[in-house]
């Protein structure tokens, strides 16, 4: 069984996803390896100590370089990276949002201007599936259109309709590729890939329900909520989570894409979300911002210049076990790469430790109490 639900605490779910590369305990957080590496100078040895359940790679960027054929020849993205655990790749749909100034949306796909050399490239549902099959991730995503949540409802409606059409095309092409790759002659030579559909609709509950209804007609292996944390308020995002998550198939994993802060993740878990990814722990680290057991900290602040205590006394990561706040501040002020690397390790350690705490609390049936204590400490 690909996904099994082990226990609940309120609406929070403790589960397990089984892939050929390993088991993923959920709820889980996926560090982002956009181009086959975690930004901040994080090595596989670092990741083995941090112990994430799964990593996320970016289809659009890996298509541009090194190219999916090179990755395929290496045995797949995990093998290319020397990563021994499961991997997920997005579809390129988020770049429809983030690269809006260099793309044109058509009914059959999206034409991009390659931001590296100016060449035109075209991503369709079929092309996205082919790239992701070559990349060889354990979980892949249907191609979708991710519109800004602040755009007109009529435009979001068009994006929902396209996403529904592209979801069907993605699924059908995925099935063709699976049959081709798992023919008797090649059986066992490629690892099984699981496909998730992506629900769109902005902050409009009627469009979200329309999107979910259409996608639920397709037997995806899991379902994701996309198009959140793209301009709407936190209150609006929570409203969508409250109304839509419980309507997603209970027997399939639920993935909230690109979200978010620790508070966002904990709130989403309380509504029944199982999987998360976000750039915040690594991006914030590159700018000197730390997540700690007592809240967020800017390590560049002058008050830390002579502070010889650990960044977070309750943390046992490489940074907190070996270095002081004063030294970390010095590294950032001196623009030494070590500072960014150590703080990236710390922030990922914080996020992954938080997820372990979430899983333990659900297993004990005490998630609501854990949530209250955690948020009180970090506020």
What does it look like?
With 379 residues, the protein is α/β, with parallel strands linked by helices. It is 43% helix and 18% strand. It is built from 15 helices and 16 strands. The chain has helices at residues 44-50, 59-64, 68-73, 77-81, 93-98, 125-135, 153-181, 205-216, 234-244, 262-270, 280-286, 318-322, 325-333, 337-363, 367-378; strands at residues 3-9, 12-19, 22-26, 28-30, 55-57, 87-89, 103-106, 109-113, 120-123, 139-141, 194-199, 222-225, 254-256, 275-277, 289-292, 295-298. The strands form four sheets. An eight-stranded parallel β-sheet has the order 4-14-13-12-11-10-6-5. Helix 8 (205-216) links the parallel strand 11 (194-199) and strand 12. The chain is globular, with a radius of gyration of 21 Å. The two termini are 39 Å apart.
Physical arrangement of strands within the biggest beta sheet: 4-14-13-12-11-10-6-5
Radius of gyration: 21 Å
Runs with pLDDT <50, length 5+? 183-189
Q: How many strands appear in the DSSP assignment?
A: 16
The percent range for strand residues is: 15-25%
Structural class: alpha/beta
Counting H and I runs of at least 4 residues, what is the number of helices?
15
Percent range of helical residues: 40-55%
Largest sheet: 8 strands, parallel
| Overall mean pLDDT | 95
Query: First CA to last CA: what distance?
Result: 39 Å
Subunit organisation of the chains: single chain
Query: What overall form do the CA principal axes indicate?
Result: globular
């Amino acid at each position: 069984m690909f996904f099994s639900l082990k226990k609940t605490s309120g609406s929070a779910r403790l589960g397990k996803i089984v892939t050929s590369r390993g088991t993923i305990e959920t709820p889980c957080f996926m560090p982002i390896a956009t181009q086959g590496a975690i930004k901040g100078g994080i090595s596989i040895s670092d990741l083995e100590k941090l112990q994430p359940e799964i990593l996320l790679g970016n289809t659009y960027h890996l298509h541009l370089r090194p190219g999916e054929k090179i990755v395929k020849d290496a045995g797949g993205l995990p093998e290319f990276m020397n990563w021994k655990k499961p991997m997920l790749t997005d579809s390129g749909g988020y770049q429809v949002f983030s690269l809006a100034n260099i793309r044109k949306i058509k009914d059959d796909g999206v034409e991009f201007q390659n931001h590296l050399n100016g060449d035109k490239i075209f991503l369709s549902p079929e092309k996205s599936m082919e790239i992701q099959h070559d990349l060889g991730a354990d979980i892949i995503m249907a191609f979708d259109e991710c519109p800004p949540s602040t755009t007109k409802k009529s435009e979001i409606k068009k994006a929902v309709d396209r996403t529904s059409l592209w979801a069907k095309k993605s699924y059908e092409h995925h099935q063709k590729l699976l049959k081709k790759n798992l023919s008797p002659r090649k059986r066992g030579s490629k690892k099984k890939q699981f496909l998730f559909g992506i629900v769109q609709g902005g902050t409009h509950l009627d469009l979200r329900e329309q999107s979910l209804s259409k996608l639920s007609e397709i037997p995806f292996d899991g379902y994701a909520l996309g198009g959140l944390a793209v301009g709407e308020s936190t209150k609006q995002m929570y409203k969508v989570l409250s109304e839509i998550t419980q309507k997603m198939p209970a027997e399939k994993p639920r993935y909230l894409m690109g979200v978010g802060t620790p508070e966002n993740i904990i709130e989403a878990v309380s509504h029944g979300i199982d999987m998360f990814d976000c750039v915040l722990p690594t991006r914030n680290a590159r700018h000197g911002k730390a997540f700690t057991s007592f809240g967020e900290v800017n390590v560049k602040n002058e008050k830390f210049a002579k502070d010889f205590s650990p960044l977070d006394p309750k943390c046992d990561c490489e940074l907190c076990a070996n270095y002081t706040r004063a030294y970390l501040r010095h590294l950032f002020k001196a623009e030494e790469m070590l500072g960014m690397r150590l703080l990236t390790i710390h922030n990922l350690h914080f996020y992954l430790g938080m997820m372990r705490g979430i899983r333990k609390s659900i297993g004990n049936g005490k998630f609501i109490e854990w949530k209250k204590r955690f948020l009180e400490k970090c506020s």
